[in-house]
Amino acid sequence: MERRTFVGILVSGLLGAPLAVGAQPVGKVHRIGFIGNSTAALESNLVAPWREGFRELGYVEGRDLIIEYRWAEGDYSRLPALVAELIALKVDVLVTAGTPAALAVKRATKTIPLVMVAVGDPVGTGLVASLARPGGNLTGLVSIAPDLEGKRLELLREVVPKLSHVSVLTNPANPFHALSEKQVRAAAGVLHMKVQFVNVRAEPELDHAFEALTKDRPGGLIMLADRVFLHNRVRIADFATRNRIPGVYAYTELVDAGGLMSFGPSYPGMHKRAAYFVDKILKGAKPADLPMEQPAKFELVINLKTAKAFGLTIPKSLLLRADQVIE
């Protein structure tokens, strides 16, 4: 091996090695508070890209920053206490996913910067003044687009051409769902579909929701974006499969669990991008001046195995549009 090559490898190894036990960090160690809506295990696919985002920006955990994680375990009533815990730790920045967690932070502090990931309608729910100029101590990434729920209904109609009756899983505890329900009603009217809303505020209400769906026998299922539903994705996907109800979901994870289709933004991608916002704030930017970002692309994922189990034929035109097909 040439000496130059050996030295290069040695230097790279030293730079990439973790700090020795007891070594002092260089400069300020920033403390970031991350509030997850589910559990560390169920959100590992979101935490991994979030941490990768920091690594790509040159941060080393333990040397440049410490991330304090708190998990709501699918129970929104725990959010205020989790926020209070992180505020007591004097974190430099808070990071949340979804509208309920963001509202919990907004009620608790007007000074600690908040980066919101995958928030629904931040203007309509009163979180920010505008997407371009958020104002206050909040900024981040938006997960919606005009007529998103209408597009999900259209996808179901393409797979089930005679579809006339759809049920929608919605969470009244999520303020964003008021806008989503309006979109569903408008799209259902255009497509001449009957729509039934089934409320689930927390996991204990799922059994009642399943009873209502079993009684109503809809031809299709829409699941609005909500972390209570994501936390219980296996139960929801299993129920839909057992009862042969084709569904379009907000999260790819539902398709991985056996659901038929998902259509929405890349949530792992948004978590990775959140590191960029945190970096800007740590370097002196004010959240009020950081424009919120909207998804540049929405991903369609189709589970062909589930389609076959339901006796459904996915149109070729739809398969060609899919970003991922699970066989």
Radius of gyration: 22 Å
Shape: elongated
Q: Runs with pLDDT <50, length 5+?
A: 1-25
Spatially, the strands of the biggest sheet line up as 7-6-8-9-10-11-12
Q: Roughly what is the average pLDDT, rounded to an integer?
A: 89
Estimate what percentage of residues fall within beta strands.
15-25%
The separation of the N and C termini measures 46 Å
- The number of distinct helices, counting runs of at least 4 residues, comes to 13
Note the main sheet.
7 strands, mixed
Summarize the helix and strand pattern as letters.
HEHEHEHEEHEHEHEHHEHEHEHHE
**Residue share in helices?**
40-55%
Count the E strands.
12
Annotate the secondary structure layout.
Elements (H helix, E strand, L loop, with lengths): L2 H14 L13 E7 L7 H13 L8 E7 L7 H10 L4 E5 L1 H10 L5 E6 L18 E5 L5 H12 L5 E6 L6 H14 L3 E6 L6 H11 L3 E4 L3 H5 L1 H10 L4 E3 L2 H5 L4 E4 L2 H16 L16 E5 H6 L6 H6 L2 E3 L1
Parallel strand pairs: 1-2, 1-3, 3-4, 4-5, 6-7, 6-8, 8-9, 9-10, 11-12
Antiparallel strand pairs: 10-11
Helix pairs in contact: 2-11, 3-4, 5-6
What would your notes on this structure say?
This protein is an alpha/beta fold and 327 residues long. The protein has 13 helices and twelve strands. The protein has helices at 3-16, 44-56, 79-88, 99-108, 148-159, 177-190, 206-216, 227-231, 233-242, 252-256, 267-282, 304-309, 316-321; strands spanning 30-36, 65-71, 93-97, 114-119, 138-142, 165-170, 194-199, 220-223, 247-249, 261-264, 299-303, 324-326. The protein has a seven-stranded mixed sheet with strand order 7-6-8-9-10-11-12, with helices on both faces. The radius of gyration is 22 Å and the shape is elongated.
